[in-house]
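Progress note, sequence design subtask.
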């Protein structure tokens, strides 16, 4: 299994980024996919979820109305469109399959760094 996140970078407050996570080694379309993030000195937190067919999405309150999660099952890729970025969104962003109550199903990828700063 591989999860490869990309698309991060340095952006000014109010800016936008689109993250991608390319998955391989499992039947992508059969699984819920999540985006998580981990800021320095903080625990990893759930940002957004998308159901298998992409018809149901959920968001953390902190990103609701600003972030949009989507997926392309033909490309085994999940996306996170981030708009209205704030300094508090600065973190390393990861994707994974949820496996409650144990956390994530697969080993974590390298993540992609998002830094929001003027």
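Output:
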């Amino acid at each position: 299994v591989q999860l490869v996140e990309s698309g991060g970078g340095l952006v000014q407050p109010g800016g936008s980024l689109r993250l991608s996570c390319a998955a391989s080694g499992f039947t992508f379309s059969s699984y819920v996919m999540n985006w998580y993030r981990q800021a320095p000195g903080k625990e990893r937190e759930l940002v957004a979820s998308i159901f298998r067919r992409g018809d149901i999405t959920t968001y953390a309150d902190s990103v609701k109305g600003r972030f949009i999660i989507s997926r392309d099952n033909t490309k085994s890729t999940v996306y996170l469109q981030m708009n209205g970025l704030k300094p508090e969104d600065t973190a390393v962003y990861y994707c994974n399959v949820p496996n409650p109550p144990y956390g994530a199903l697969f080993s974590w990828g390298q993540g992609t760094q998002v830094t929001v700063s003027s």
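The mean pLDDT is 97. Work on this subtask will continue into the next period as scheduled.
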